[in-house]
User: Fold this.
Amino acid sequence: MIQIGDRLPEQEFTFITESGKTTATSAELFGGKKVVIFALPGAFTPTCSQAHLPGFVVLADQFRQKGVELFCLSVNDAFVMRAWQQAQNADAITMLADGDGAFSQALGLAKDTGAFGGLRAQRFALVAEDGVVTELQVEAPGKFEVSSAEAMLKRV
Assistant:
């Protein structure tokens, strides 16, 4: 599992925007910035849609005032992440589609949910500065406490 002091793995992410499909690498997204990446098992799922993402939507301005960019990671495709972003009014948050789970696996924070959903990201949040992890909060199975927007705002 990735640890404090480790560099985020290199990955190319695909995004769906108003102008179409684009890509960006980890270095382009996280380099030279302070970021919070929060990960969740799936777009449109109960805790993710009712608490995790909405908490960051509500507090987005407070993160921005601290100079922090927000990224939401899920093992979904870019079309699903864009639709979820729009449904949740989450325009202040960059949605990271980890379609094949490669980034979650490279972080050592993937989990296999079997027939229920297959490979997913564990619920976690991290702070990275210039691509290096400075804080890492991984939830215990079935919990939602340490990776919430409120908890992470205290850690930036």
Summary: Strands lie at 12-17, 20-25, 34-39, 68-74, 94-97, 110-112, 119-121, 124-129, 132-138. Helices lie at 26-30, 46-65, 78-87, 102-107, 149-153. The longest strand covers residues 68-74. The radius of gyration is 14 Å.
